Amino acid sequence: MPGGSAQKKSVAFYCQPLYLAGVVAEAEIHYRHRTITPDDVQFVRDLLAADAGLSRRALSLKLCAAWNWVQPNGAPRDMVMRGLLLELERRGLIKLPKARWRTPDGGLRQRQPERIPLLQWPAVAGPVSRLRPLEIRQVRRTPDEGLFNSFIETYHYLGYSRVVGEHLKYLIWAQGIPIACLAWSSAPRHIGCRDRFIGWSAAVRQQNIHLLAYNTRFLILPWARIPHLASHILALVARQISADWNQLYRHPIWFLETFVDPERFRGTCYRAANWIYLGATTGLGKDDHTRKQNRSLKESLGYPLAPDFRKRLGVA
Question: Using CB atoms within 10 A as the burial measure, which of 128, 131, 132, 268 is most buried?
Answer without folding.
Answer: 131
